[in-house]
Design a protein that fits this description.
heterodimer, A: alpha/beta, Rossmann fold, 8-stranded mixed β-sheet, B: alpha/beta, FAD/NAD(P)-binding domain, 4 domains, 22 helices
Chain lengths: 351, 607
């Protein structure tokens, strides 16, 4: 953390997007996390992705729960809407907000504790409901805010700062999401922005629930030898199997790939995600094959990263619930409110 | 690229653009910080160590530091370095007790300096504390050289000159005024001196040989000679309409002096368009503020004389073909006549040595310029040294100071029977500025203030007398604001590759995106992979050793770093540190074992 504010001065070549904003305009308040925290790098990646998606700040909703990770929504896009919810209950807020206004972009930032311990139930049901949101887990394997106890994502045998080893089986959010039917499942590492930024762009453009589990080392409590979520261990054991390039929607897409080299996935708004398979045998469109590969490699202590599974157009929350096509605040009051007579009719149906 | 050798004393020195650009390598950020702390006397002494004449230079230096200032690359205007120097000089206390001590017992070596200008005075300043007996011969009745004769009093008050010259003469220099040296042979043959330093300047103004020059002689003046006559009160008026030929800094002094001697309509005649003028921008601006008209594209053809008196000049009107700031073609558009009463020629000056006999072993080239070694300043005759404008032609005051420093080293070595070639190289001392988690012993918060404007005396009031100083100097409020614009470039970002865990924290926080972690490569290739594109290839890249985890390297583009220290604050492993780099300049005194120098008694408030 820093006491000084990041000065407004910038490199003269800093580019502006079509809205006239520079990347710096998508920053938030200054981080108060520990110096060197992986979360800050993820914040920088979100900032970069929002800038290059030319997102209007007022159309972004930032949601979080409790924990170090959940502080980070304050550190990007000051102009967006923010909601810092009860511990583990961010998906409920996301669901409500999403139901009320489907025209906004939703980004939820959570941690391994907020998601996989106290918020596990909420997390699972948000996936089942296929809420249209990007859900980022800043996963460091410890409860940093309470001084470094193992979290539910801590690997077997990984040691705490004082040497004691974890004996419980970890919950893997990627496998969990795959088994619950999520349509966009990715894993990345805070130290690899070349991979992370296009994943965030694609996740924000995915229609339905998009999960990115980001390994984000806790520099204070989980960056020692013996930790399986340190910078050094992550670098040694993470294996990019699919590289994602995000191609925004343009009148005419001019870039082209050699046939067979990349798999092109059309997103709901017309933009494209291009997947380059770095491992020939990996198949990001086959759910059960992906599940098996990830699980097998986890046993070998290899974290597969990239967009591990994608299903371009599943039915999302709005399709499932037949919600109106516009945000509720744009629906005329007479249609929104059934009136006392209407209400009476509804109640009568349940008598 | 190979890892950057930051142990080389020049690497971090170059990062301090102002100090690197200053011929005398004045420690600019250090004295600006001292001013910020209100320690004006300390700031003055830091200046004096390298540039010897802070009060003078704070008014009239050609300030090579300011175009170099990094602030000018981050924003439009550089820090007003020069005028802050004046703040230190104006507000300082008495410094007598802090001047170098002079040994009571001299070392028996006698040095002659010819001309009491900047270079000779610097030689005396450096050699007197080592026990030398220095004699300065000066043709005029006052010391100061071109600083006194060519810079008008409305830019440099006599009192400021007198004070700073007195600090040196007061060391016990044998200053012989009104003693023009007529013959080098006589001086050398007298065997009175162990070494001779020629600091006689470039006292001869260039002539413009055009039709009518002879006939118009009474009203055509050579710029530097005319300024000299004004300085010594031999001239106190000029015609109403004056033409100045040439657009250098001397021309600016001539036109502004003319206005103070009764001229009403002053035109500076330039042969070329703007952008090709030799005068500094700020001097042009000051002249134009006084309603001097600068007429471009006029090439002088003839002086026009009627009834034995100058009535004007004819010029050829020129047109130029320009290509990217260079003249590629020129064409005459015909002649024009401009009436005037007086003409002042300010088209350059040269050094002249009619008093040095050519058979003394002191070689001159075909342009009559002496052959001087650019490092040692020794001529082709051992024991005879040149410096200032006398050595390589007209430069400026701050160059003359540096020549004096270097010549003094050579003279000392020569007199001690040592090789003048073997000189101590500069050093670089680094010390951390970290005081706590988020505390540095320097003010690292970037201040977005704009450059302060120098207040001037009212336009009417300033012409009342010749010696009313036009610039009033910064007010304390202005100085307080201006010092905060300095980026503290001497507080270096020092990187230790083996501590880095590649967490990207520094890259993410850097406001100007000057850091990148990337696989190594050749410089041209690396420059294409930086987080922010290279704008200025003249500025070096710092490249670390291979990082532990991935073998990539940390690259820093020094160009736009604002030295805010956020990289170091955000670094979890202290791989980045902010360290004050002090360039250890080697003057004559540093070539002498410290034990042989006089010491001040304890408690006397020495340096």
């Amino acid at each position: 953390m820093t006491y000084l504010l990041k000065p407004k001065v910038a490199h003269p070549s800093l580019r502006r997007n079509s809205l006239g904003f520079t990347r710096r305009d998508y920053e938030g308040t200054l981080s108060t996390l520990c110096a060197g925290c992986g979360h800050d790098s993820i914040t920088a990646a979100i900032t970069e992705a929002c800038w290059s998606l030319e997102m209007e700040p007022q159309n972004l909703v930032k949601l979080s729960g409790i924990g170090c990770s959940s502080k980070t929504t304050a550190y990007f896009v000051s102009g967006g809407h923010g909601f810092n919810s009860v511990h583990g209950r961010m998906p409920s807020i996301a669901t409500g907000a999403n139901a009320a206004n489907r025209n906004l972009s939703y980004i939820g930032v959570s941690g391994d504790g907020d998601t996989l311990s106290i918020g596990m139930g909420q997390f699972c049901h948000a996936i089942r409901r296929n809420i249209n949101m990007l859900y980022i887990i800043e996963n460091n394997g410890v409860y940093g805010l309470t001084k470094g106890q193992f979290s539910a994502s801590a690997d077997m045998g990984s040691t705490a700062k004082k040497g004691e080893a974890n004996a419980q089986v970890p919950i893997d959010p990627v496998l969990t999401a795959l088994s619950l039917g999520a349509g966009f499942v990715a894993r990345s590492f805070s130290g690899d922005k070349a991979q992370l930024v296009p994943l965030i762009q694609a996740g924000l453009k995915h229609r339905g629930f998009a999960l990115i589990d980001v390994l984000s080392p806790c520099v204070t409590f989980n960056d020692h030898e013996g930790s399986t979520k340190s910078y050094a261990f992550s670098r040694e054991h993470y294996q990019e199997v699919v590289h994602t390039d995000f191609v925004p929607k343009m009148p005419e897409i001019t870039t082209s790939y050699e046939a067979g080299e990349a798999l092109s996935v059309q997103m709901h708004d017309g933009s494209q995600v291009r997947l380059r398979k770095l491992e020939k045998d990996y198949n990001p469109t086959d759910r059960s094959a992906a599940y098996a590969d990830i699980q097998r490699r986890l046993k070998e202590r290899e974290f597969l990263t990239g967009l591990l599974y994608v299903e371009p157009s599943p039915a999302d929350f709005h399709d499932l619930n037949e919600t109106p096509a516009s945000a509720l605040n744009a629906v005329p009051y007479e249609k929104l409110s059934p009136g006392s007579e209407g209400l009476q009719k509804i109640l009568d149906r349940y008598r | 690229m190979n890892p950057t050798d930051t142990k080389h004393p020049d690497y971090y020195h170059r990062v301090v653009d102002c100090q690197w650009a200053c011929p005398a390598h004045t420690d600019v950020p250090e004295y600006i910080r001292l001013i910020a702390q209100g320690r004006f006397t300390d700031a003055y002494m830091v200046n004096r160590e390298s540039n010897v004449f802070p009060g003078i230079l704070g008014r009239v230096c050609d300030r090579p530091c300011e175009p170099a200032c990094r602030r000018g690359r981050v924003e439009e205007e550089p820090v007003a370095i020069c005028r802050l120097k004046r703040v230190a000089a104006d507000l300082r206390d008495d410094v007598d007790a802090r001047l170098p001590l002079i040994p009571e017992v001299r070392n028996g070596k006698r040095i002659a300096c010819i001309g009491a200008g900047t270079a000779s005075l610097t030689v005396a300043n450096d050699l007197m504390p080592l026990g030398y007996e220095v004699t300065i011969f000066e043709a005029f009745n006052k010391a100061g050289g071109l600083m006194r004769t060519n810079i008008p009093a409305f830019r440099l008050p006599a009192q400021v000159l007198d004070e700073e010259i007195a600090m040196i003469v007061g060391m016990g220099v044998d200053l012989r005024l009104g003693s023009r040296v007529e013959s080098m042979r006589k001086l050398l043959n007298s065997k009175e001196f162990d070494a001779v330093f020629v600091g006689s300047g470039a006292p001869r103004g260039k002539e413009l040989k055009l039709p009518g020059r002879q006939e118009a002689a009474a009203n055509v003046h050579i710029g530097i000679a005319w300024l000299e006559s004004v300085a010594f009160d031999h001239v106190d008026r000029i015609g109403e309409r004056v033409l100045i030929i040439g657009v250098g800094n001397t021309a600016m002094d001539c036109c502004r002096t003319s206005l103070r001697l009764g001229a009403k309509d002053v035109k500076v005649m330039a042969r070329k368009p703007r952008g090709f003028f030799k005068a500094s921008d700020w001097e042009l601006k000051d002249a134009e503020e006084e309603h001097v008209q600068i007429v471009i594209n006029h090439s002088p053809k003839a002086f026009v004389v009627e009834n034995g008196k100058l009535v004007g000049m004819t010029f050829e009107r020129m047109e130029y073909g320009l290509d990217g700031g260079r003249i590629t073609a020129e064409r005459s558009l015909g002649e024009t006549f401009i009436p005037c009463d007086d003409v002042i020629l300010a088209i350059g000056q040269e050094n002249a040595f009619p008093w040095i006999e050519r058979d003394l072993g002191i070689e001159f080239d075909k342009w009559e310029v002496p052959s001087v070694d650019p490092v040692t300043f020794q001529s082709t005759r051992e024991g005879v040294f040149f410096g200032g404008d006398a050595a390589f032609g007209p430069k400026n005051i701050i160059w003359a100071v540096e020549h004096g420093h270097q010549a003094a080293i050579s003279i000392h070595k020569y007199c001690q029977g040592e090789s003048v070639q073997e000189r101590l190289p500069n050093g670089m001392k680094l010390s951390s500025r970290k005081m706590g988690m988020h505390e540095w012993s320097y003010h690292n918060d970037y201040n977005p203030a704009e450059r302060r404007l120098m207040p001037h005396v009212d336009l009417k009031e300033r012409f009342r007398k010749l010696n009313i100083e036009v610039e009033l100097g910064f007010t304390p409020e202005q100085a307080v604001a201006e010092v905060q614009r300095c980026l503290n470039c001497d507080i270096q970002t020092v990187f230790e590759a083996k501590l880095c865990i590649e967490c990207d924290a520094c890259l993410d926080i850097c406001p100007v995106d000057c850091l990148t972690i990337t696989p190594n490569g050749e410089e041209a290739d690396l420059r294409t992979r930086l987080k922010a594109p290279t704008l200025n290839t003249a500025q070096p890249l710092f490249v670390s050793e291979a990082l532990k985890q991935t073998g990539r390297v940390m690259v820093k583009d020094e160009d736009l770093c604002v030295h805010c220290g956020l990289c170091a604050e955000r670094c979890p492993t202290a791989a980045w540190d902010m360290q004050k780099g002090t360039v250890e300049l080697r003057h004559a005194v540093d070539q002498q074992p410290a034990a042989q120098l006089p010491r001040r008694a304890t408690g006397s408030g020495g340096q």
